[in-house]
Please model this.
Amino acid sequence: MYAFAASTRLGVGARRDIVPIPGTKRMKFLEENIGALAVGLQPEELERINRVLPAGAASGQRYPEAVMAAVNR
Model:
């Protein structure tokens, strides 16, 4: 939940018109994800997260190219 909370305050998620909703199959998961918005993160915590995982650090293909060829076939 803390990772999701941070994602709503860093990078693209810092925009108030974009909210990432990971793996939401059921209402209970949606409610859990929305609950992350209530988690308070101090500016120092956000700065540390930015140092450890700067914007753009987690980019690129989800799977290796050979596996991507088999996805959604």
User: Anything to note?
Assistant: The chain has a mean pLDDT of 75. The helical segments are 2-7, 27-35, 43-52, 65-68. The CA atoms of residues 7 and 13 lie 5 Å apart.
